[in-house]
């Protein structure tokens, strides 16, 4: 009877170890996804800033050109 209990306890321990490993893998994947998401967000922010800079520059150039033409 003690032997049966030890076998069942060992199986339960092995199952818990396996669940722990699966949860550890899921955590690592979630952390990788967060890192990728953060990188993509930073890249998007740089793209938006770059686009805003180009639009502002274009607007300023166009505005100056029209202002100069109006003065003539």
Describe this structure in words.
With 72 residues, the protein is mainly alpha-helical. It is built from 1 helix and no strands. It has one helix at residues 2-71. It is rod-shaped and about 90 Å long. The protein starts with a helix and ends with a helix. The mean pLDDT is 83.
For the biggest sheet, the summary is: none
Separation of the first and last Cα atoms: 106 Å
Tally of DSSP helical segments: 1
Stretches with pLDDT under 50, minimum 5 residues: none
The shape, in one word, is: rod-shaped
Q: How many DSSP-defined strands?
A: 0
Strand content: under 5%
Please tell me how large the radius of gyration is: 31 Å
Helix content estimate: over 70%
SSE series: H
SS-based class? mainly alpha
Overall mean pLDDT stands at 83
List keywords for this structure.
mainly alpha, 72 residues
Short précis:
The protein has one helix spanning 2-71. The chain is mainly alpha-helical and 72 residues long.
Give the arrangement of secondary structure elements.
Blueprint (H helix, E strand, L loop, with lengths): L1 H70 L1
